[in-house]
Design a protein that fits this description.
The protein contains twelve helices and eight strands. It is of the alpha/beta class and about 300 residues long. Among the domains are: about 115-180, no CATH class; about 195-260, Helix Hairpins (Orthogonal Bundle), CATH 1.10.287. Strands 5-2-6-1-7-8 form a six-stranded parallel β-sheet, with helices on both faces. A two-stranded antiparallel ribbon has the order 3-4. Strand 3 (about 55) and strand 4 (about 60) form a beta hairpin. Helix 4 (about 125-130) crosses helix 6 (about 160-170), helix 5 runs parallel beside helix 6 (about 160-170) and helix 8 crosses helix 10 (about 235-240). The protein is globular. It starts with a strand and ends with a helix.
């Protein structure tokens, strides 16, 4: 099957976004982000949402799946797949090349392996999570998921609302035409010590340039500390710092270490993908010329 997608993946802090935007600009493409936190509006510095990276030669390369949902709304694998295929169909309808760019392993894997998310699985963990919410909160989630509500009396029975949410999250992919994907994949890698050095320098810069204020603003807007914990990394540790559970130095050290571990887990995902027989064309750093050559030789053949 001929390639119909170009994927640029790699761990955090290797320069994927600017490389992807540069390649999309050169080849006439658009970006679909594969980042589980950049979907949230107002979460910019902590998620590394460097929108300037999409500006190439004075023009903005079109991007998708960034700033699509509010921080107090739920986003999950099902919604990512739904919005990915919507964006993919829009891009290809314009005769443009879709570039999937990011580092969230599960999201990338779901597209590259063509997950079938139509099967509803009522797992106890998700049911318990939803069961802690009020009927009003559950109704709000269900309305945002927008499944067909055949029986409005279901909105009065908590158990039925929860099941409707799980069904909506797991099994409405029929709304979008799902294409079979064959992707040319380029992986950006750097030596582990170089990645650690970049992560630490980037963290210092972000802390000094508005990241703490960003998390304060989210709290002022009603985002709970529990919700910040769920976002992980920067939001989790800055939440603990602002709550007084960690001093600045402990927060920095723990957060820095957590991001290093996260980068390591990302590479574990990519090795898993390779073990499954999916070929990743690795390049050293965000090397535009090397990536351009791989695409020129392999995507159009």
């Amino acid at each position: 099957m001929q390639n119909n997608l170009i994927t640029i993946l790699g761990p955090t802090a290797v320069g994927k976004t600017f490389l992807g935007a540069s390649l999309a600009n050169y080849f006439g493409g658009e970006i679909i982000s594969a980042d589980s936190r950049q979907v949230y509006r107002g979460m910019d510095i902590g998620t590394g949402k460097d929108l300037d990276d999409y500006i190439i030669d004075g023009k903005t390369v079109p991007y998708h799946l960034i700033d699509v949902i509010e921080p107090d709304d739920e986003f999950n694998l099902f919604l990512f797949n739904k919005q990915f295929y919507q964006a993919y169909n829009e891009i290809t309808s314009r005769k443009k090349i879709p570039f999937l760019v990011g580092g969230t392993g599960l999201y990338l894997h779901s597209i590259l392996k063509g997950y079938n998310l139509n099967k509803v699985e009522f797992d106890d963990k998700r049911f318990s999570e939803l069961n802690n919410l009020t009927i009003e909160q559950l109704t709000s989630i269900l309305k945002k998921l927008n499944p067909p509500l055949h029986n409005t009396t279901d909105m009065l029975i908590k158990d039925r609302i929860i099941r409707a949410i799980i069904i909506a999250e797991s099994g409405n992919n029929n709304e979008v035409e799902k294409k079979k994907i064959s992707s040319l994949i380029i992986g950006v890698k750097l030596e582990r010590e170089e990645i650690k050095k970049r992560i630490t320098a980037r963290l210092k810069h972000r802390l000094e340039n508005g990241m703490i204020e960003e998390v304060k603003r989210l709290i002022d807007e009603g985002i709970s500390f529990e919700r910040l914990d769920l976002f992980g990394l920067e939001y989790k540790f800055l939440g603990k710092y602002l709550k007084g559970e960690l001093n600045y130095n402990d927060m920095f050290q723990k957060l820095n270490s957590a991001i290093h571990s996260f980068a390591k887990r990302q590479m574990t995902w990519f090795r898993k993908i390779e073990r499954e027989g999916i070929k990743i064309n690795w390049i050293d750093g965000p090397d535009f010329e090397a990536a351009k050559q791989i695409i020129s030789q392999n995507y159009f053949s």
